[in-house]
Design goal:
By secondary structure, the protein is α+β, with helices and mostly antiparallel strands. 31% of the residues lie in helices and 24% in strands. Strand 29 (674-678) and strand 30 (685-692) form a beta hairpin. Helix 12 packs parallel to helix 14.
């Protein structure tokens, strides 16, 4: 939901501001293209009122997959900046100073050239070959970028120019003295060719001079530290290096200038490698504090680690920034609560606690009711995942006023919160379904927490019950039953918002898609599931979903917010699908996001992403990176494997469902899933699968949480053609239903579930 209008930012088209740091994309016949000849065209996808790609994915053998969506259209690549290729934010964990690497390798800290981008540091632009062409300027010759080890924030790529192929590697130091300046270390080597030339053009506001091997200004502030290979050309303000096979040229770029060090020695390859080892160790050490998760799909494993690391790089201290290096480098409560929640789900409760407090203390007066509901929801989630009653009591002064703000200010006539904006960008005061659904959920959840803490508040619980009924009554008075499916407007009681024939045909209809996500997520309609079904049907039949992600068209001319997606507002929709056990549709969301909501191999996503490619190399996105978009992927992945639900609609989690929506291929013969110390509302859980299809057996080893749920269910979601015919725990037989589910509600502690399997091949399968 772009805040460009709210922030007073001018609508932007594609920025073609080509200065020394710009790199023009030159299409070539060898570019990546859509290889699936039977896939629909881009215009057909955009014009469809149903998710034709998602539905096609569900019809594939084995169901939705990464490969299916990766072929559907060109990947994400472009942004509305002078540097045009998406940026990769590099920083030490939670450090305030952050470097910007242009993803085609053309520059570090290139200027954005538009008011939506925040610039930092002195731009350093890279040229290669005797003609000094921009590194990455011709995408046909670029291999990468990708992350070291598949997920570490060390960016690798290679580029062919003439007879030489140049390899570039970039990371930001985690050494505290250097991390504070976001010092980006860069190394150039040759992958092919006998000799190559690299130039690093420096673009300071005033000329720099070389002092030893440091480029500094007149105040002795260092911007670049060079290796011995580089030669300084003061006329060009450039460092030039000639490299041969088995040689390297190393460089360190200071995003924030630093005082001249006492020694002016050159940057050695040994120091570069030492800094790299420190970087690898620090990020691996941080990620190891969370859950241990391994699934039998490399791209998914790389993605969850990469986006967790990216979110730690975007966060500043305890402030959960929505993005970095652009106008979204700030804290938003709705989106931030999802990001903090993802950190919690992946085992970072200690790190999450101060971030949660920052959200609770943050104020957005013009959206005070809507954001208050999200604050309370995040607070309740933290409690259930930690059972930390001491935290709740010690921060009572923070959350009690939030409850009073909602309950005490309900309108006496309607029973709803006072009118507020339709959405953050739509400054139209309305009786807001989304706001009220979120506020009811937040108050209800905290009331349930108080009951669990031994501090029940019957008066608050009754007020909450009355509040929910007032919202449902308002919905009953507002629903358009003459339309098919019946349409539930976000604008209640006034009759202004009419049904949308095609949701994205108007700006307001597009925002209805986004707010419906929050309504589904609230669980308001759990007591009236037919109304939730109407919302889902409207999304599915009126052009609200593509590749399992919510559609959006702002009709504003803002770059990448037209004819596209706003996938970080899809998490509530996907969680609702999972709760309703619509696993295949949830997997459409999972793989749609993984293949087309992230860049390939670097896993960067924006708030808005256009479905229309700018050329055969890629599609545009709006102001990447996006912590909430990363969180959407993390929430989805976790809930494919582990779900902790409130099934009886009283605010207290009571049901644990395991492996309920895994991709079927994850239980193929020889495959294994490991999820250790996964936080749940009932305590930490560990599970491990061992698939022995060739022996007709599946083993699932479990360490169940210490708080026993009312219901614990485990599913063997097997590859097509396989059926679980029986199951046992330590020799005791269990009933298995038709979907492969066994009931473990009477079990506790450590156990192994042994499924006996049967293969029922179709004639087609036997013959092929």
């Amino acid at each position: 939901m772009s805040r460009a209008l709210k922030l007073g930012l001018a609508p932007l088209a594609v920025m073609m501001v080509f200065g020394p740091c710009a790199a023009v994309c030159q299409p070539a016949a060898s570019a990546q293209t859509r290889t699936g000849c039977d896939l629909p065209g881009i215009d057909e996808i955009i014009d469809a009122k149903t998710d034709i790609l998602g539905e096609a994915a569900m019809r594939q053998a084995g169901g939705p997959s990464y490969e299916f969506f990766a072929e559907a259209m060109p990947p994400l690549r472009y942004v509305n900046a002078a540097f045009r290729h998406y940026p990769i934010v590099l920083a030490a964990p939670r450090n305030g100073c952050k470097a910007r690497l242009v993803s085609n390798g053309s520059a570090i800290n290139a200027k954005g050239g538009a008011q939506t981008w925040n610039d930092a540091g002195v731009p350093v632009c890279f040229r290669v070959g005797s003609g000094e062409v921009a590194f990455g300027g011709n995408l046909a010759n670029l291999d990468g970028p990708r992350l070291a080890g598949g997920y570490l924030p060390i960016v690798e790529m290679s580029y062919r120019e003439g007879d030489a192929t140049y390899r570039q590697e970039t990371f930001v130091s985690v050494d505290p003295s250097l991390a504070a300046h976001a010092v980006a270390f860069v190394r150039f080597t040759l992958d092919a060719g006998e000799e190559g030339k690299v130039s690093a053009l420096v673009e300071p506001p005033e000329p720099l001079r070389l002092a030893g091997h440091h480029l500094c200004d007149d105040k002795q502030q260092v911007s670049v530290w060079a290796g011995s290979t580089w030669q300084w050309d003061p006329a060009k303000q450039a460092l030039d290096a000639t490299i041969r096979a088995n040689e390297e040229a190393v460089l360190a770029v200071f995003t924030a200038a630093a005082p001249m060090p006492s020694t002016t020695s050159f940057l050695s390859g040994r120091e570069y490698r030492n800094q790299r080892r420190q970087c690898v160790a620090a990020w691996q050490r941080l990620l190891s504090k969370g859950v241990a998760l391994d699934v039998p799909e490399t791209v998914a494993n790389n993605a969850w680690r990469a986006v967790l690391a990216a979110n730690f790089a975007i966060v500043t201290d305890n402030t959960v920034n929505y993005s970095a290096g652009n106008a979204y480098h700030t804290e938003y409560i709705t989106e931030g609560s999802r990001t903090v929640g993802a950190f919690m789900l992946f085992g970072f409760s200690n790190e999450s606690e101060p971030m949660l407090l920052s959200l609770l203390d943050h104020s957005i007066p013009e959206h005070k009711y809507a954001v208050t509901g999200w604050k309370l929801r995040a607070l309740a989630q933290y409690y259930w995942l930690t059972r930390d009653a001491t935290f709740m009591r010690s921060n009572r002064s923070r959350w009690e006023p939030l409850i009073r703000l909602i309950v005490d200010e309900l309108d006496p006539e309607t029973g709803l919160t006072p009118k507020d904006f339709y959405a953050s960008d739509i400054a139209q005061p309305v009786w807001n379904l989304k706001t009220n659904a979120t506020c009811w959920r937040g108050v209800r959840d905290v009331a349930a927490v108080l009951r669990d803490m031994g501090e029940p508040n019957p008066e608050l619980e009754e007020r909450t019950r009355q509040y929910r009924q007032a919202i449902l009554d308002a919905v009953d008075k507002s629903v358009h039953r003459e339309f098919e499916p019946p349409f539930i407007p976000n604008t209640l009681l006034d009759g202004v918002e009419k049904p949308y024939e095609a949701l994205t045909a108007t700006c307001l209809g597009s925002y209805w898609c986004l707010v419906s996500n929050a309504v589904l997520d609230s669980g308001l309609f759990d007591a009236q599931p037919e109304k939730a079904a109407w919302v889902l049907d409207t999304l599915h039949r009126r052009g609200g979903v593509c590749m399992g992600m919510l559609r959006f068209d702002q009709h504003s001319g803002v770059f990448a917010n037209e004819r596209g997606l706003d996938d970080n507002y899809t998490v509530g929709y996907t969680l609702h699908l999972l709760k309703q056990d619509d696993a295949d549709r949830a997997l459409v969301s999972f793989y749609g996001k993984l293949a087309q909501g992230f860049t390939r191999e670097t896993f960067v996503g924006g708030e808005g992403t256009s479905l229309e490619p700018l050329d055969e190399y890629g599609r545009p996105m709006y102001l990447p990176p996006c912590t909430a978009g990363n969180a959407f992927f993390l929430w989805t992945l976790r809930n494919l494997l582990v779900q902790d639900w409130d099934a009886d609609d009283d605010g207290v989690p009571d049901t644990l469902r395991l492996l309920y929506a895994t991709p079927r291929r994850w239980l193929r013969d020889g495959a294994a899933i490991t999820f250790e110390e996964a936080p749940t509302a009932f305590g930490a859980l560990s599970l491990e699968t061992e698939s022995r299809l060739s022996e007709g057996e599946l083993l699932v080893r479990l360490a169940l949480p210490r708080h026993r749920p009312k219901k614990t269910l485990l599913r063997a979601r097997l590859p097509e053609g396989w059926t679980a015919v029986s199951a046992s725990v330590h020799g005791s037989l269990l009933d298995v239903d038709q979907s492969g589910v066994v009931d473990l509600s009477e079990c506790e502690g450590r156990l192994t579930v042994r499924f006996q399997l049967d293969r029922k091949d179709s004639p087609h399968e036997r013959n092929h």
